[in-house]
Amino acid sequence: MGLFDALGALFTLTALFAYLNYQYVRLPTPIGVMLAGLLFSLGLLLVGGPAESWAQELVASVPFEEVLMQGMLAFLLFAGALHVNLDDLRRRWLSILTLATLGVLVSTFIVGSGVYYLAGWLGLELPYVYALLFGALISPTDPIAVLGLLKRAGVPKDLETLISGESLFNDGVGVVVFAVILSLADAHGGHAEASLAAVAAFFAQEALGGLALGLGLGLVAFYMLRRTDDYSVEVLITLALVSGGYALAAYLHTSGPLAMVVAGLLIGNHGRAFAMSERTREHLDTFWEMTDEILNALLFVLIGLEVLLVRYTPGYLELAALSVPLVLAARFLSVGLPIGLLRLVRPFAGYTVRLMTWGGLRGGISVALALGLPPGPERELILAMTYGVVVFSVLVQGLTIGRLARFAAGR
0.90 cut: is pTM over it? Predict the structure, then answer.
């Protein structure tokens, strides 16, 4: 199946699932279309025959890791950052920075160590460095899933800023940590040995380089927007900023996700206030909100369909099921420890750790990173665990975070 045919089928399925969800179920669109895609895939697996073969060919024709990590992610992160208030982030900068760095590292090692011992207990072979890879790809909360569902969850504003800010930045940090561990696994066949200086240099190039690139490109775009008074040209400038900026980040070996977050924050705050007319703001908001909604729907349908590629051999299902409480426990500790330290300098609501634990959703980025691993038994095992955690996260946590938020806030 050609790429255009596959995309045509994917858009058709997405529109159909979104329509059925709107007419009959009325779940949040990302959850509704993902659930529909998952049920559709499971139905095809049960029926088998030509229908299953067609669906597997469809999924194989759309390279999920490439489509998300080298395409959709740039637009989704920019669109998400565009509507985050920079003043709110500044007030919470220390908390967000701590959670996005220390929190990710703590969770990576807790999950990695836990999975390593659980795999051994179940008689499965998983080198420690690959267990850490799973920890790195599953620890960051997914901004695409988080931002889309927080809008509807009724989370208190201060906590919403903390969760959304953390998800925007820990995604980039998590991808960098994943890349560092993957390079160790590739170089040493699963036995990690590398100098601390080399790891620090790689991390600095990716993370700090991404932040600097996003700031520089955002300032260039801001200057161009300020000198233009034509909304169609201004929307085109933001498109060039996202697509060209992300490609440039890849060429310079810096973090594209972090660059897009910084650029989105700059344009969404200073650009909106000082470089756009009211008419341009309306058109820009409409364009990027529509882009965000459409790409989100496509992404979550793809996640639902990816079950066709997951292989659950003996022991895999058990480890995937055990990974869910392990990841939640790691999330609780990786949030609770930093928040406990930060309480020494500023107050937090009593429900902060509980809501941040349950509201830390995982999504397409984790699946994409797992699919991008080199072929082998470790990849299949990590993919099975990742898919299990993501499905639980989006369907169970995503559907209940609103109720938990209202209960915690006493509403």
Answer: no
Q: Which residues contact 156 (CB under 8 A, 6 or more apart)?
A: 349, 405, 409
Distance CA 367, CA 128 (A): 20
User: Which fold does the domain 64-408 belong to in CATH?
Assistant: Na+/H+ antiporter like fold (1.20.1530)
The CA-based angle 377-382-387, given to 5 degrees, is 130
Tokens 């969800």 belong to which residue?
21
Q: Is 123 exposed, middle or buried (0-12, 13-18, 19+ CB in 10 A)?
A: exposed
Could you tell me the two tokens for 196?
């601390």
Per residue in 169-204, pLDDT tens?
A: 887 788 888 888 888 777 655 444 556 677 778 778
326-340 pLDDT, tens digit each: 999 999 999 999 898
Q: Which amino acid is at 24?
A: Y
* Domain residue ranges in the chain: 3-61, 64-408
Helix (H, G, I), strand (E, B) or coil at 192: coil
